Amino acid sequence: MISARNQFKGEIKMVKLGEVMAEVVVQVGDLEVVAAITRTSAENLKLKPGDVVTALIKATEVMIAKE
Q1: pLDDT confidence tier of residue 58, bands split at 50, 70 and 90
Q2: Is 65 inside any structural domain?
Q3: Which of 6, 25, 44, 55, CA to CA, is 20 to 30 A from 38?
Q4: What is the phi/psi pair of residue 62, to 5°?
Q5: What is the CATH number of the domain that holds 33?
């Protein structure tokens, strides 16, 4: 069990490895969620496009805009 309430299942579209960090793009329905994680974590998880993952979001601030 994990305390993060905002959990979104999606498919990895891209993993861009940098020297220290990795950018992971997850397609969640019509939205893309982009996560910056350590390169070591991305490698340990063996993340690659096509993998089904869960994006867990725990934030102290969420902004809302109305159009």
Answers
A1: confident
A2: no
A3: 6
A4: -130, 130
A5: 2.40.50.100
pLDDT at 44: 98
The pTM of this model reads: 0.87
In a domain? residue 61? no
Cα pseudo-dihedral 56, 62, 66, 67, rounded to 10: -60
Token pair listed for 58: 């725990």
28 token code pair: 């969640």
58 dihedral zone (left: phi>0; alpha: psi -120 to 50; beta): beta
pLDDT the model gives residue 16: 98
Which percentage of the chain shows pLDDT scores above 70?
100
* Nearest-5° Cα angle at 5, 30 to 50: 40
